[in-house]
Amino acid sequence: MRPAHVYADLTPAQHLELVTALHGPWRVATRIVIVLLSASGMSAPEIAELLHYEPVTVRRWITRHTRDGINGLPDRPRSGRPRLGSPTLGHRIHTLLHTPKAWTTARLWRAARRPEMSLRTFYRRLREHASWRRPRLIAKGDPDHDTTCATIQARLAALPTGSVVLAEDETHLDLLPRVRSCWMPTGLRHRILTPGSNIRRTIHGAIDLTTGAWHHHVSVKNVSVVFCYFLQQVLDAYPDAPVVAVICDNGGTHHSGITRRWLAEHPRLLLIEGAKYSPQDNPVERVWAGLKHHIANTAPATMAGRVRQAHAYFRDRSTEQNLITAAPWTSPWLPEGFGQDFWPRA
């Protein structure tokens, strides 16, 4: 027994949806159907009535297929609307961005002589030549940098066997949280509580450039007396070393009268100051960067809690981790051939 005939029952909305699809995303397939229906003997007006096209459109696609085959049925490339703005707009944007300034989209649009386009369109043009990021702060440098570093290398190379060489620096520890970008759940922005008023502590730190041993001290202020106390702490850590050389920057506490008098009373400690305005030479700077990244986006209730964070960070790190972070072999302070056995110890 033959099955019953089945007919589609379409609502007006469904019929419109199918016709729209045939004329839209499935238009190339519709053109193939036009060619197949024409090959089966249907005329152009009949095909046009069936597929809701004009007869002239049906004839155009049949002719296109006859001439180019199936490769002629897809849409041909179109030029589209000409780009807004003059051809030199990109060059103007590029030239303006070479001048350091707090450039925003609106400010740059005004400086580019207000091209006739929306700010959103101008933003898309801007993205072709620039990216949104913060500038990098750099030290102005010391004109005698190379000479100073060569002098430091010579002094270190002349140290007796068993000497200890450390890099020293200071940084500030604030109760006010340091906020940095990080991953957050979509739709949620974490809120970090700020204190009523900021409280600051100073950390003196020094790393043994050979073994990676770390020494640090937290104080209320960075004054000469505290710096001398920290030097005494470092000196006591190496009682058998003939010389303990400490390389530091040119901070005021490093050459104050109090510090000079203390150094005269402790000849076993050799304090060497590096080049001016050259923090990139000091391996301890990278240790501070790791500490501040560790405590970022956290808000302890008290300054004692912040100090405990710093103590825990240094306590949980091994000497190997300290060396990897500080990377002292990249510093221009150290003489050629520097390594574990450069100053052999008993």
What would you note in describing this structure?
Helix 3 (44-51) packs across helix 4. Strands 3-2-1-4-5 form a five-stranded mixed beta sheet, sandwiched between helices. It is elongated and about 110 Å long. The chain contains 13 helices and five strands. Helix content is 41%, strand content 10%. It has helices spanning 12-23, 27-39, 44-51, 55-68, 89-97, 105-111, 119-127, 145-157, 224-237, 257-265, 284-295, 303-315, 319-326, and strands spanning 164-174, 200-208, 214-219, 244-248, 269-273. The chain is α/β, with parallel strands linked by helices.
List descriptors.
346 residues, alpha/beta, 5-stranded mixed β-sheet, 13 helices, 41% helix, elongated, Tc1-like_DDE_dom, RNaseH_sf, Transposase
Radius of gyration: 37 Å
Kindly report the spatial arrangement of strands forming the biggest sheet: 3-2-1-4-5
Number of strands: 5
Quaternary state of this entry equals single chain
Instruction: Round the mean pLDDT to the nearest integer and report it.
Output: 90
**From N to C, what is the helix and strand string?**
HHHHHHHHEEEHEHEHHH
Structural class: alpha/beta
Discrete helix count: 13
- Shape estimate: elongated
